[in-house]
Amino acid sequence: MSDAPIKFGTDGWRAVIADDYTFENVERVSQATAKWLKEDYGPSPEVVIGYDARFLSPQFAERAAQVLTQAGVDVISSGEMVSTPAISWATKALDCDAGIVITASHNPPEYNGFKIKAHFGGPAPPEMIAAVEKAVGPASDLPSDEERRTSPPPAHHDVRSGYLNALQEALDIDAIVNSGLTIAHDAMYGTGQGLVTELLGEEQVVPLRHERNPGFHGLAPEPIEERLTDLSATVAESEDCAAGLANDGDADRIGMVDENGDYVSSHRILALLVKYLHEERGRSGDIVKTFSTTHLLGKMGERYGLSVETTPIGFKHIARKMSEGNVLVGGEESGGIAATGHVPERDGIYIGLLIAEMMVKRGKSLSALVDELLEEFGPHYNYRDDIHIREDQKATVLDRLDSKGGLDAVDGHAVEEVQTLDGFKHVTENGWLLIRPSGTEPVLRVYSEAESRGTTRTQLLSVLFRLGRGNTKGPYRRALACVEHHEHMLLVRFGDFHRIPQGRASPNRAVQRGRYVVRPGLRKYTAVRGDGPVVFNR
């Protein structure tokens, strides 16, 4: 029996299946959730529960429902795989006191998790999560197997259909369908499967990774640029696709590519939404963004007369603002975005189709909309890398930053200000660079923003060297030499490195004057020359 403490991260409790994520620990968290609910909502609180496409998720959801019922909670079950936004919608629509989703979202396939949704239809705020953590008791306090198995089955509700109806009311689906716009949709084997197709019809959707695969083909289902190569190629090679939409494992995050297959960052999606909702739909309200999100939104707020507020990382902080006041758009760098007219929750399907609606209403391609945005508000480029390190290494880096009050320079530019709302954000005349630990994984996240694409990479690479990531006599030293002496040609990925011998650049050899560091296993080498990317196929 386990008595180990259970800690929630920025978005729920997540752990490796059969390690810390066990049936017993799911029972402990479920029982703690029941205690919190009964303390806050009375003797018979009501909960709606759903689950994702991961290994054993239906069984974990069933076990959670049994424990909740045994504790006196009225449980409504989706009875099938559903997205996290669908459960958030159901929590509010069914007037439940909370929602629960068995999901590890975008984490690697060996993980599973437990998300809690508040009564208003968004992530439970920190004080609610703290109450649940505090209520987690030892396994000896759990009901017996016999008591649990004799619990009455939960009521069922067609959450999926209700959620789709809500999207049809929030979006101009008819305009998208009548335009003939075709979208490629990459569900990444997650709960977004079939949703876009049901809304737009089979003729206007090219599905990718819409089958059940609890192993996610060995990849974390996160819709970031490097994991959307198939979507990018599909759209680029198609004569019909106007854009590509991708969602993570529980479909609350978004990734997009334009009609050329070029990645459109969440920073730009956020900015496009502000522009469209304010200019086209005539909506006003606050812009709420997390600490790692583009400063471009500040410029837009000034232009439109909209208040811009920055929160710590984690959508739960944005959700609270949305539940309390008038928020136009709220979002985070990782692709979790919410907009007015829907639940105060990240929803990758809703946001993707809202961008499609913008394309139709404006009569412009996605790339043209991005070009128009940057021409009006100036160039902003963002880059992020996740450095997978041990927890003790992560602590060492953070202690070093804390003891020195951050770095004094980034890529040769003096740091004008160090902001510590969530991590260490170093602001220079050339942009900013943020270093912070992940709240859900053994990862150090490094974010960069500048006016040129190349600068975002050099900022990040030079800081990694200064922090002593790896051995300075090893590949990071070679990478730094590349920054210092060959700025016209910088390879931008890192990880397990190897070198390319000196030689001339060609379609099959990404080399030019010296030695460059690349990450093996990619389908192409990416380099930066000036302000634009230069891609050499492997």
Explain what you see:
This protein has 17 helices and 27 strands. With about 550 residues, it is an alpha/beta fold. The protein folds into four domains: about 150 residues, Alpha-D-Glucose-1,6-Bisphosphate, Chain A, domain 3; about 210 residues, Alpha-D-Glucose-1,6-Bisphosphate, subunit A, domain 3 (Alpha-D-Glucose-1,6-Bisphosphate, Chain A, domain 3, 3-Layer(aba) Sandwich), CATH 3.40.120; about 80 residues, TATA-Binding Protein (2-Layer Sandwich); about 70 residues, no CATH class. The strands form seven sheets. A six-stranded mixed β-sheet has the order 1-5-4-2-3-6, with helices on both faces. A five-stranded mixed β-sheet has the order 8-7-9-10-11, sandwiched between helices. Strands 16-22-21-20-19 form a five-stranded antiparallel β-sheet. β14 and β15 form a beta hairpin. It is globular. The C terminus is likely disordered.
Outline:
With 538 residues, the chain is an alpha/beta fold.
Descriptive tags:
4 domains, globular, TATA-Binding Protein, single chain, Alpha-D-Glucose-1,6-Bisphosphate, Chain A, domain 3, disordered C terminus, six-stranded mixed sheet, alpha/beta, 538 residues, five-stranded mixed sheet, 17 helices
Structural shape:
globular
> What would CATH call the architecture of the largest domain?
3-Layer(aba) Sandwich
Distance between the termini: 51 Å
Query: How many distinct domains?
Result: 4
Number of strands: 27
- Placed side by side, the strands forming the largest sheet appear as 1-5-4-2-3-6
- Helix fraction? 25-40%
The major β-sheet equals: 6 strands, mixed
